[in-house]
Every structure is written in structure tokens, then in C-alpha cells.
Amino acid sequence: MIGINTSIAEHFSLKKIPFLKREKNSFKSALFEDNLLFLSTVFNSRQIAVVSGPSGSGKSSLIFYAVNELDPAEFRVVHLELSKPKKKALYKTMAVKMGLKPAFQADDIRLQIIDFFHEENAQGKFNCVIIDEAHSLSIEMIDELRSFYDEGANFSLILAGLPQLLNRNLNLSMTIPMKQRVSLFLECTGFSLEETKDYVSYQFSAAGMQNGIIDEKCYPVLHSMTSGIPRKINQACYVALLECFKNKKSIITADVLKKVNEKIFYT
Questions:
Q1: Assigned fold of 30-187
Q2: 2-14+191-264 topology per CATH
Q3: Core vs surface per residue 193-215: b (16+ CB within 10 A) or e
Q4: 258 phi and psi, to 5 degrees?
Q5: Mean pLDDT of successive 10-residue segments in the chain (267 residues)?
């Protein structure tokens, strides 16, 4: 595939293939900049934040760019991606990522982490725990995290997940106490038509585009088939580049995108 991508880049006179990797500098939509500004305040205020949105809407990218602005000497960030974790697995993974040798019992590991955070705080360092796929947390685990946060209140907590995290999981009688502790609710959504166009241009520019590669008539089709979701745009545009390369075309047209849509079938 590396050879194919090199050939595709040469075919379109690009320095690299766009749409495959997160760029060093983010694409700055209005919503993204607002979310980034607010999320950045969480790290040094020991608050709880919820970041929700559809799959591929940019939750992980938002968190990545927010963390990337932090000074590692002042902030310790523990990022967890566990699907339906149990209590011990959650705390053990957290402890290991912090460089601790976890105890055997879950409650003992929890105390280790709280004590560690206290030591870090005493040295002027801020700690943040980020839990991705938080919509998969059980009701019991959400309440466990609430208790964990209350016991120390010495770290920031960011929960990121699909919309049901906010719409369902945090609206139950057992989880309302956790919801009441959340200071910040951020939502990631799809781009507008104009933002979709700007995002595609941003990707191609980062890849060193010299000449136009995509026809203007493509953008309404692309926005319609992806709902402006960044990951869907990335996939559709990359597959479109492949299609053009296979058929020796130099421009992505609306017809090419319609063929792509038949393959990935978003709409």
C-alpha cells in the first residue's frame, strides 16, 4: 500500500497523500476553535468535562490538539481507551500509564492513584484523566468515577463518547450525581457545506497541491453523502483519489464521488 500511495501522490503531483493522518496544525472551524478554547480551561481547573458527538466527528482530534498545547513539565495526561471496562481494569490501566506498579485490589490501586495525584499537586503539577469511548461505561462505573473524583478532587476528568453518553447514560437516577458535577459540555458535529469545502482544501494544501484536484460541483455531493463528518470526508476523498488513479483521471468529479458513495454507502 505504501507503493500505491507513492504512485497516487505522484499521479496528482502531491508531496504526500492527504486524508490519512492527523496534521500537525489543526483545521480551525468556528466550532472547533470554541471547543478548543473551553476544553483548554479544564486541564488547570480540575473540572469534569463531557465531549460528545457522532463517530468520526472530531472528538479525539479536539482532545489531541488540546493536549498538544500543554507543557509536559506542568501537566500529566492519562488517556484511556477501554471498551466496557471493569473497575480493576480501569484503575490498573490508569496506574500503569502513570508509571505506577499497581496493587492487587482495585480499591488499593485507586488509593495509589489518589495519593500520587496529591504528590503531583504538591509539586505544582496538574493531572488529567481522559476516558475515550465513555459511552460504553456501565452505570456502576460512571458512579465509581464520580466517587473516585470526589475522594480526591485533585485531577481533571474528560469523558468523551457518542451522543448517548449525554442523552442517555448521564440521565439516569444513578448517574445524575455525576452529571451534576460536570462543568463543561462540548459537542462535536459535522461541518457545514462551506466548512467541508475549506476542510478539503486544507487537506490538499497540506499535501502540497499545486493544481486543482477536485471539481467545485463535488462539494454538495460530498457534504450530502458524509453529513460533514470529518472521518467520513477523509474516507470518501481518499477512496475518490484511488478511483481516479485506477482510471487515470486527474480530477475528482461528482460522478467519481457518486461511485465512491455506492462503495461505502453512507447515503
A1: Rossmann fold (3.40.50)
A2: Helicase, Ruva Protein; domain 3 (1.10.8)
A3: eebbbbbbebbbebbebeeebbe
A4: -65, -35
A5: 82 92 91 95 92 96 95 92 89 94 94 93 92 93 94 89 89 93 95 97 91 91 95 96 92 92 78
DSSP-assigned states of every residue in 182-230:
EEEEEE--PPPHHHHHHHHHHHHHHTT--S--B-TTHHHHHHHHHTT-H
pTM of the model: 0.91
Cα 252 to Cα 130, 248, 259, distances in angstroms: 39, 11, 11
Instruction: Provide the grid cell at 262.
Output: 455506492
With contact defined as beta carbons under 8 Å apart, do 186 and 217 qualify?
Answer: no
- Give the residue extent of every domain in the chain: 2-14+191-264, 30-187
